[in-house]
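As the next step, I wrote out a protein sequence along with its fold in token form, included below for the reader:
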Amino acid sequence: MNNRIKELRKEKNMTQEELAQILCVTRQTINAIENNKYNPTLELALKLAKLFCVHVEELFILEN
């Protein structure tokens, strides 16, 4: 699964650390998600979508 988190985070001029603090996770978690090494929980995915004002389906792209 790919995602647009890095792209949207940079549009908001936000660091990984800042995003992590807002979501109450570690910077390493944000890094792993952005690099497609970790799929977030449903709760975290919904929080990310809400923060970036997009639907979850716009944030995460399921590859076949």
Residues 2 and 36 are 6 Å apart (CA to CA). Residues 42-51 form the longest helix (10 residues).
